[in-house]
Structures are given as C-alpha cells and as structure tokens.
Amino acid sequence: MHGLGNDFVLINGLNTTIELGSEQIRFIADRRLGIGCDQVLMIEASQSAEADIRYRIFNADGAEVEQCGNGVRCVGEYLRRHSLIEAETIRVATQGGLVTIHFEDENLIRVDMGIPSFEPEKIPLALTQRQERYRLTMASGEFEVMALSMGNPHAVLLVKDIEQAEVLHIGAEIQGNTMFPESVNVGFMEIIDERHIRLRVNERGVGETQACGTGACAAVAAGIIAGKLGRDVDVELHGGSLSISWAGEGQTLWMTGPATNVYEGQIEI
Known about the structure:
single chain, 17 strands, 17-stranded mixed β-sheet, Diaminopimelate Epimerase, Chain A, domain 1
C-alpha cells in the first residue's frame, strides 16, 4: 500500500502472533532482494479498551518507531476494504499515542493525529528549555530548526526552494546531531502563502520519502506557532498533497489524504 508514494508492506496480525526480527524487516523492505518499502506496518489486536486495534511501525532499517501518518491511513483503508471493522470511526493505538481514523468518502481518510508537543522532554531534545527555534552548528554550517513531536520527533527548517535544499546531506547531519538523542525526522518547508506550503522530508531510518504524513503535520504546526501559516494548510509533497488543520497549541491536529492499495500476496522469510 502507499500514501502519496510513501509505501508500506502491511501485515495482518489480528488473529495470530507474528514476531519479526530487524534482519527480517530489512529483508522485506529491501527494494532489490525483498518486496521493497519505506516502512513495514503490523496490525495487531488491541491491548486496551480505549483502542479498536494496535499497529506497529518498522522503518526500512529494521528499527521500530512511534508513529506514521501515511501509514495509519493505509491501515484504515485496509480495515475498511476487508470489512474487518465496520465502524465509520476507528481508534488506533500506536507507540506514539492514540489516533482516530474517520472515513470522509471512498477516496479520503481523515485522521485525528493528537496534540503536537513542543516540550523538549517529549520530542525528545537534549535540552530542558523550550525555544521557538534551536540553533545547530554542524559541518555544513549553522542552521535554525523548529522542533516538536507528533508522537515521533521532528525538526523543521524553513527554506526558499525545496528543490534546491540538500535534503539528504543536511538531513543526515541533523539526524546525527547530539541534540536529538533518538534521531529525528527532518522537514524542509517552503512557504508559498499562509494556506500552502511545499515540503520534503528526510525520515530517520529511511531517507527521503515521497511523502511523510507526520512530517506534514509537524511542518504546519511549526509554521502556525511561528505565525507564518493559517489554520488550514495544503501541504504539497513530491507524492501528492495532504490537507492539515490545526486550531493551535493544546488542540488536536487533523490530517486528510488518500490511501492506495497496490497488491496482496505472500512471502516466505
């Protein structure tokens, strides 16, 4: 499946226990030797009364991570297509917290992504004092980033032109910076106007993806806090567009976009 080109191998573990090691995850994600994907998603039975299902996210490098915005829409589409849950609203537990899926129509899925957090210990950062921007001194020079958590850590840079941005090189440097003890997803945001941005994201453990759902959420939230964006923003990514709505700090953030099934099959590992 994919969400705007951010692609996934989704495994149904609702009725059976499936345990995969990091080497097996890397094999599945390998685009030459395995199936190929940015992340492997595992659907599991809920472990609490507050969620309908649980899902786990593994990056292509085999590491488990907390949250994935494009992935959760694909999970919703999979559950709907297979009639595994009949409700119009699905509560999904992730390592990064609870999110809620709403089916807008046959093509669009709207997700309550929870409340963005700007507190250093929640991101996390190797600092105790919250700042509007954080200055990083690296081999490539000095950069100012905005930082927050969408259930997973994000750093957002403002750039004049995303096509000219050194997404892989600078993104990797920021991910290795000691300010981010659990690494970080790095977004490069070009503001067109207060309702429209362009975005590229270097995801930790993956590299640059065609789209990053939590990255889009983080960029818009950072832009709103900085006073540069309105409450409803279209985010243009290389794989397509997402609609993000946020009423401001302390409020839940909403993401709307598509999810696409590519094929189903079996693999021996």
